[in-house]
Write a structure and sequence with these properties.
The protein contains six helices and eight strands. The chain is globular, with a radius of gyration of 16 Å. The chain starts with a strand and ends with a helix. By secondary structure, it is an alpha+beta fold. It has an eight-stranded mixed sheet with strand order 1-2-3-4-5-6-8-7. A hairpin with a 4-residue loop joins strand 4 and strand 5 (85-92).
Length: 179
């Protein structure tokens, strides 16, 4: 399945994407992610091969239309099909594509897929307080702050708050109808 946007497509992650997935080892990229351990080709290949074995996670490669090369990933995790809830995640792992609006477009495409195709009721996410770009994108796309996990992230000798944000289907559809 491919979700088409104006500047990006969301497509399945392929084994051929592994070299580009290893951008996740960049320290500046890693500070925004949950993962703390360095990854190698073997671990990434194992992850890609197992991506589509579970119905609890749906992951897409974020690929600019002109190159179709992975610059990050987005998806829905820990999907609860009974309560129609999931954890939203996104990472632009190629820093050359930061601040170009691709994260916003990928978030919008993933929300459309979640609410319009999968009939999700609620999406939530966790974001570190120092990730101002991501917080801006999430708020722009309709997520609202629901709470704070105080000092729940340790990075470089300091503890940081983790902000919990969410969006409900009715909020998503209300935003769509007002456009």
């Amino acid at each position: 399945m491919i979700l088409r946007g104006e500047r990006i497509n969301l497509r399945p992650v392929e084994i051929s994407d592994i070299d580009r997935l290893l951008n996740i080892n960049d320290e500046e990229v890693r500070q925004y992610l949950l993962s703390v351990f360095p990854l190698n080709r073997i671990k990434e290949e194992e992850w890609v091969k197992n991506l589509y074995t579970s119905q609890r996670d749906i992951v897409f490669a974020i690929a600019p239309v002109e190159t179709n090369q992975l610059v990050g990933t987005t998806g829905l995790h820990s999907i609860d099909w009974v309560n129609r809830c999931a954890e939203f995640g996104i990472a632009i792992t190629d820093r050359n594509y930061w601040n170009l609006g691709l994260g916003t477009e990928a978030t919008q495409l993933t929300l459309r897929y979640a609410f319009e195709q999968l009939n999700m009721h609620r999406l939530q996410l966790h974001v570190y307080e120092y990730n101002h770009r991501a917080i801006h994108v999430y708020e722009k796309c309709g997520f609202v702050r629901e709470g704070v996990l105080r000092k729940a992230r340790y990075l470089k000798g300091q503890y940081h708050d983790v902000i919990v944000m969410g969006i409900l289907a009715q909020e998503y559809f209300s935003r769509q109808s007002s456009r």
